[in-house]
Every structure is written in C-alpha cells, then in structure tokens.
Structure to design on (569 residues):
C-alpha cells in the first residue's frame, strides 16, 4: 500500500514538472523567437518533452502492474492461507410490537396515512399546539395497579389467610395478622401520578395482550415445574411426636404418584425466565416492575419463576450490542433449554421528554411518538421443550472490525483489509455480508477451530454441522431490511444501496426496506422494532420462499439477522 502511494506521488510530481516545463519554454521562446534555432527546437520542444512524457507513462505502467499483483492471488495450489469466518448463532424468536401505524408488517409498511395530530396538552416554544404521533388504540389507565378495596386483590391472599387460620386458634391473633397484611398491601399498591409511567404501563399491557399465546404456554410449563417441586407440608399441623410417622406414611403412599409425574417432565426444563425491561430514565421504574409482576401473575406466571432486570434506554454506557453479546449469543450457544424475554417501551408524548430532549435542540424536527415491542428469545432446546407456535429460526451473524478479511470488490474474494476510517467500517461490513450471502459460510465451534486451512483457489467448505449460511440460489427474491434512518444517515444509505446493487447484478430481485425512522431517538426500539418487523415479514414469506434478512448497524460492528430456511420445517 505504501509503495502504491509513493508511485502515485512520483507520477503526480513528474506530471506537474512536465506541464510547468512546457509553459516556461513556451513563454521564453515567445519573447525570444529570433534565438530559436532548429537544434534548440529539437532539444526543447521534442526530445525533452518526449522523455518526460515517456517517463510518466513508464511510472504509470509500473503502478498498474504493482496493483494487479496485489489483487491477484499469487499463491500456488500447495500454499495454504488462514481464513477466519464469522460465527453464526441460531435463535428462535417470538415477538409482538405496537406502533402508531399498526401491530404487524402489512399494517405498518403499507400504511401511508398521516397519523399525526395536534396535541391538546403539549405546546412548542411559541405556545402553539405540538404535533404528535400517538398510538390511539392504546388507552391509558389512571390506576393500573389494583386497589386494596377491590375484592380481587384478596384472591392471592386468601390462601395465606386460610393457612394462618388453621395455625392460629386465637381469633384476635388472626385478625391482627389480617389487618397488618392489608395495610402493607395497600401501601404497596400506591398509585403513581406520573403520566409517563402510566402511559408505559398501558404499552406494557398492550404487548402482553398481543403475546398471550406464548405467555400462556410459558405459564403452563412453569406450573408443571412448580407442581413437581411442591412437597407436602401438612406435617406442620401434626403433633411433634407424630410428625415422623406421618411423613413416612405420606412418602409411601405418594411415592408412585411422584415418580409417574416426574416421568412426564423432560430431563432438562426451563426453570427460570430472565426478563429485561427497557424503559426511559424519566419513568418510575419501580412502579413499572410492580405492574409487570402483577400482569404476569394474571397469566399464572408467578414471581418465583422469573427475574426482572432493568435496562435504561438512554444510558449510553450500555448499548444493544452488549445485550446481544452478553445474553442472546449465550442463549444460542447453550445446549440446555434457555430463553429470555425483552420488553422495550417508550413514549415521547409528555412534558418531561420535551424538556429533556426536544426543547434542548430547537433545530430538531422530530415528531414525538411512542412504541413498544416484546421479544422472546430461545434456543433450539427451549423451542423443542415449549413447542411454541413460531417455528421460524434466525441466524445471528456478527461482523466485527477485527474481522481479518474483507471482500475485494473486483474479484469478490476474501482479501486482507487496510486501515480505514470509521465511516468505511460499515461499507466493509456490507461487503463481508455480501460475500457470505452469495457464497455461503460455515460456523466453527471455537476460536481455535475458527482457522481453516484451505488450498488456494478452492471454495471454503463448512467445518462442521453447526448453523451455517446457505448461499442464495439464482433467480431468488430477496427482502433486504435495514435499521438505517434515510433522513439522518444519507452516507450509510448510499452504501446500503451499493450493497443492494451487488445482488441486482447477479440477476436477483431485491426489495429493500429502511426501518430506522421508527423511534429514531431510542436505539433499543430502533433495533428491536426492526427485528420484530423482520420476524413478521419472515412468517408472511414462508409460502413465497423469499430470502429475508436484516442488517443492523452498531458503533463498531454489524449484525446480519437471516431467516434460517435451511432448518425450516
């Protein structure tokens, strides 16, 4: 690379010298025409210019020769090179989403109506009504948590009261316990006066309603596990001198039933469900967690079978790519059943968000809106265990900046990259993805096995039976999705269009979609709404046998989300 630059500089210098020489000679002899002899004409106007011009041509020829040597593969058939391939991970994803346009791919993509209207409570700098874009079908409840006056609140406490009625013989002691429990419970149910938090509760409830089909399946699974783990505790009501005999009798009579019930359960079960709740920092997170626990209890998913981890959407120290690395790839690599639930919600239609975001940037023309999405990620073992309705799997392939090979545009072969600017990373990642889609790839099992020795001029062969990308067949139809926002990322969009053109040149029909304008100020929702749209599009394209993939752009990496048609039923 350095020698190529040196040659280009030398050629540029000689070209400048040649032009300056001709200009000076012409200016000199224009004023001294009488001194020009035939010998001087031959020297100054023919021999020296031809020499300089020939020297420039020779330098140019040498530069092209050097460039052709770099692009050609000079290795013979016996020399080996190291190729490091990116890993692919198989995930099963069930999802739901809520946008002002609708809840599905057809409703959202085909909706060209103007859904904005003037707010009755929010105004801009001039005091004029602000233009907003809400989800009108989602109704905000002013009291999302149950009141303690409602009899339904005591349903979950009835068993507790009954058990203590059996234990306490003194009615006064039982009354004291009941009064204390009601008081504590009433304090826990204190309602939030925060409009943003109440709106986010409504969005959470909407996502759960849209996802009730697989939430009920999860509830049934955890109910079976809890029944298996339950042990008889009636011995606590027996006199201490008789407890040992009572427990022995219970074990003998129920032993066969327990063995029969245990035989019905698989060897590996999904014992815990990690839940990640992604909300803005302005919301009352404690209240939202209480509300989510209450709603899941309504499905029969008790607090003992799940954990809730809070993610602050506007915390720049933790980005979606870290969530993917830390949790999703771990789930995909696990051999036992693993799953996690991600709920991401946000609403910008409130005074708090306007003061913290929109009002700070007068030039910002963003229309305040809101959105929500829920995704259940599971590996193959969990999918077979739960038997969820969605049987479409996806391959997650991460392309990083330390990926040691890029794709040469002229030959479509892997080549060693040079130092490039940050803006060029996206273009290099797209070239790598292009090669993987057109040629296929394999996914080695570990870092040590990722290096594959191959002879030159031979096609890369899969290393094992792990999930791999199959090459796109000729005359296929492709749906290429991107999380780029065309309004704010024109450079990235131009690179993606170039990426699309490479498939069109292969006589492939490509439909491209840009999804980054949905909640552009929330990187979590921008990514996972795009992923949810991919899932819905892939489910709708099963009959059409359409290749559907999504490319998401991150700060230093890119991720290819590809519909796994090879493992589709």
């Amino acid at each position: 690379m350095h020698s190529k630059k040196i040659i280009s500089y030398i050629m540029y210098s000689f070209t400048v010298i040649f032009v300056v020489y001709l200009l000076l000679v012409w200016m000199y002899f224009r004023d001294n025409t009488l001194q020009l002899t035939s010998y001087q004409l031959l020297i100054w106007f023919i021999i020296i210019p031809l020499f300089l011009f020939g020297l420039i041509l020779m330098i140019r020829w040498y530069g092209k020769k050097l460039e052709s040597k770099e692009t050609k593969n000079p290795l013979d058939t016996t020399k080996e090179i190291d190729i490091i391939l990116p890993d692919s991970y198989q995930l099963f994803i069930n999802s739901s989403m809520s946008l002002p346009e609708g809840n599905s791919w057809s409703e959202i993509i085909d909706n060209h109506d103007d859904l904005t209207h003037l707010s009755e409570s929010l105004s801009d700098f001039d005091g004029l009504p602000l233009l907003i874009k809400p989800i009108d079908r989602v109704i905000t409840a002013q009291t999302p948590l149950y009141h303690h006056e409602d009899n339904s609140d005591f349903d979950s406490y009835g068993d507790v009261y009954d058990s203590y009625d059996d234990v306490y013989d003194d009615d006064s002691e039982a009354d004291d316990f009941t009064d204390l429990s009601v008081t504590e419970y009433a304090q826990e149910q204190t309602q939030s006066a925060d409009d943003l938090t109440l709106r986010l509760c409504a969005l959470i409830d909407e996502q759960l309603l849209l996802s009730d089909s697989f939430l009920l399946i999860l509830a049934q699974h955890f109910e079976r596990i809890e029944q298996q783990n339950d042990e008889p505790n009636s011995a606590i009501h027996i006199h201490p001198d008789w407890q040992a005999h009572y427990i022995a009798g219970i074990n003998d009579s129920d032993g066969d039933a327990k063995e029969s019930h245990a035989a019905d359960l698989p060897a590996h079960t999904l014992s815990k469900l990690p839940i990640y709740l992604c909300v803005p920092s302005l919301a009352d997170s404690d209240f939202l967690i209480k509300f989510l626990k209450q709603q899941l209890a309504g499905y029969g998913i008790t607090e003992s079978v799940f954990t809730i981890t809070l993610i602050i959407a506007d915390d720049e120290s933790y980005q979606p790519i870290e969530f993917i690395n830390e949790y999703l790839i771990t789930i995909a690599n696990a051999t036992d059943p693993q799953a996690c639930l991600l709920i991401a919600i946000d609403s910008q239609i409130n005074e708090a968000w306007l003061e913290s975001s929109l009002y700070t940037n007068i030039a910002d023309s963003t229309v305040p809106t809101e959105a929500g999405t829920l995704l259940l990620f599971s590996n193959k073992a969990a999918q077979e265990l739960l038997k969820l309705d969605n049987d479409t799997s996806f391959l997650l392939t991460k392309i990083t900046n330390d990926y040691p090979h890029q794709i040469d545009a002229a030959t479509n072969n892997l080549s060693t990259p040079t130092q490039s600017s940050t803006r060029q990373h996206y273009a290099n990642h797209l070239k790598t993805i292009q090669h993987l889609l057109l040629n296929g790839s394999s996914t080695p099992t570990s870092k040590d096995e990722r290096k594959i020795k191959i002879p030159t001029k031979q096609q890369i062969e899969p290393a094992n039976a792990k999930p791999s990308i199959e090459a796109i067949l000729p005359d296929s139809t492709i749906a290429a999705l991107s999380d780029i926002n065309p309004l704010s990322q024109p450079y990235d969009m131009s690179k993606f269009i170039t990426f699309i053109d490479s498939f069109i040149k292969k006589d492939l029909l490509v439909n491209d979609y840009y999804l980054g304008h949905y909640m552009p100020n929330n990187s979590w929702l921008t990514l996972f709404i795009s992923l949810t749209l991919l899932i819905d599009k892939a489910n709708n394209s099963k009959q059409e046998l359409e290749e559907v993939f999504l490319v998401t752009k991150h700060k230093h990496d890119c991720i290819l989300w590809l519909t796994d048609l090879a493992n589709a039923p």
The chain has a mean pLDDT of 77. Residues 87 and 443 are 5 Å apart (CA to CA). The chain has three domains: 2-71, 80-90+392-567, 93-226+272-386. The chain is about 45% helix and 20% strand.
